[in-house]
Amino acid sequence: MASQARRGGVSLPERPNHSKSDQSLSLITKITRSPIVSRGKQAAGDASFVAKKLLKSTGKAAWIAGTTFLILVVPLIIEMDREQQFNEIELQQASILGTAAIAAPQSAK
Question: Which region ranges are annotated with the description Disordered (predicted)?
Fold first, then answer.
């Protein structure tokens, strides 16, 4: 009937059809079709999208920080360790030879 053209008068908006089919819907079906649930699903979808993007960018940042550490800091640590070992060997040799580890320059009298 709604598809038939009406002649004259004022047409009112159609009312929702509350027939037996709507009454026979279960409570769970009514709840899942509610606007609150649909907005909750949308919010959960948006949150998961943001979480995925955040994890991806965090992974990229971790990769950059890790490779930078390996390239710049690890060689520095190795060189500092070598220097410390070299100083310890010099001290051992100086103590074996009986000389002062650091000889102060003496002025000519």
Answer: 1-25
Structurally, how many domains does the chain consist of? Answer: 1
Report, as an integer, the average pLDDT of 68-78.
94
In a domain, 12, yes or no: no
pLDDT at 84: 96
Residue 82 in any domain: the answer is yes
Secondary structure letter of residue 11 according to DSSP: P
Rounded Cα distance, 54 and 15, in Å: 46
Of 3, 27, 29, 25, which Cα lies nearest the Cα of 14?
A: 3
Q: State how far Cα 78 lies from the chain centre.
A: 31
- Residue 84 or residue 26, greater confidence: 84
Express the helix, strand and coil content of the chain in percent, nearest 5 each.
Answer: 65, 0, 35
21 inside domain: no
